[in-house]
Specification:
By secondary structure, the chain is of the alpha+beta class. Helix content is about 30%, strand content about 15%. Keywords: Hydrolase.
Length: about 350
């Protein structure tokens, strides 16, 4: 791919959106299989109570990108290791599961077709961790198992717990051993103030939390993940532009990055295919697909493209046909979550990046 591509229009769009107030700050990487084609950052990592500039290595709370970077990857690694099958009934791993949910499989959780509701409120329940897992397992299903796709945090909270029960390791330990260390992702972790020994000044701010009574910096933004000890399958991971570029390049190279092989190529190909073509939405295993209605990846990427977003203003998109990956990180929830301009920006940004390739 031509490394003299002109991304000036991409920078101009980001500057326009920054001035408009779509986000306080952002970091962007566009990568091919073997090189970084474009990388930039702009704006502020924090506006209140003091202002800090965005840096090239600023760490972001990734929100639901945790679902794919940690949880989906961990499930697929356990599949490769022969420890689980995606068609296993989850009752094999959750003996406390009520009998009316016997038909739910790992596949249903991965593709958001289990029937569980989109959101559950755990943070004010006054329960310990395992009681919260049981509370989720006991939730009434909103739909029949396998009937339709309904994006759901509870699905991935359960998958995260399943990884821990099968592996005997925490999500932090498992992902560190099998993904972050091999890929040299040295700024990627849950609980970065502890595990990375990062300073608050290294991390983009989220919003002011009234019940924590502080501006969130270096703690997981998601309330449920916070109540689960900040390590969960649906949210909680922190990383930066450079580290996520390595992860995306690994996916573009079908499981390998430089001299490290993280996955079999067959695993990546299987993971990214459309597994719910007969349902109401197209989903890969864990990942979203470009050909969904109003995709955040726009319309110019190929129909093989896959990606995911995070509530805090983060996203990743990978196109194996164009051999292109995009990491787009913002702190759009700072100082409040009310600004949702990122929703309309994402597809426009990805269309513009695709058009640069000509």
């Amino acid at each position: 791919m031509d490394n003299k591509l002109d991304f000036s229009a991409v920078r101009e769009l980001l500057e326009t959106e920054l001035e408009k107030g779509s986000f306080p700050g952002a970091a962007l990487s566009v990568v091919s299989k073997n090189e970084v084609l474009y990388r930039t950052h702009l704006g502020s990592a924090q506006l209140q109570p003091e202002q800090r500039k965005m840096k090239s290595d600023t760490i972001f709370g990734l929100a639901s990108l945790t679902k794919v970077i940690v949880t989906t990857s961990s499930i697929m690694k356990l599949v490769e290791m022969g420890r689980i099958n995606i068609y296993d009934y989850i009752k094999e791993y959750f003996p406390e599961l009520p009998a009316d949910k016997d038909e739910i499989t790992i596949f249903h959780l991965l593709t958001h077709s289990s029937g569980y509701q989109a959101i559950v409120k755990l943070w004010d329940q006054g329960m310990n961790y395992q009681q919260k897992i049981k509370y989720i397992l006991d939730l009434p299903l909103e739909n029949e198992v396998g009937e339709l796709v309904n994006y759901s945090d509870p699905n991935f909270i359960l998958l995260g717990e399943l990884v821990q029960r099968v592996s005997g390791m925490s999500l932090q330990e498992f992902s560190q051993q099998y993904f972050f260390s091999p890929l040299g992702m040295d700024n990627t972790s849950y609980k970065p103030l502890t595990n990375l020994e990062a300073a608050a000044d290294d991390i983009a701010a989220a919003e002011y939390c009234s019940w924590r009574n502080k501006m969130i910096v270096g703690e997981v933004h998601d309330e449920n993940a916070y109540s689960l000890g900040e390590i969960s399958g649906h949210a909680g991971l922190f990383s930066n532009n450079k580290d996520l570029s390595k992860f995306v390049m690994m996916l573009l190279n079908n499981g390998s990055y430089q001299d490290q092989t993280v996955f079999s190529p067959l695993t990546i190909v299987s993971m990214r295919q459309n597994w719910t073509a007969d349902l109401n939405q197209n989903r890969a295993l864990g990942w979203d697909l470009r050909n969904n209605f109003r995709s955040s990846g726009g319309i110019l990427f190929s129909d093989q493209a896959y990606g995911h977003t995070g509530f805090t203003g983060t996203s990743i998109w990978i196109d194996p046909v164009l051999e292109l990956g995009v990491v787009f990180l913002t702190n759009r929830v700072h100082p409040t979550r009310d600004n949702v301009d990122i929703i309309s920006l994402r597809p426009r940004l990805h269309n513009l990046i695709a058009a640069v390739l000509k």
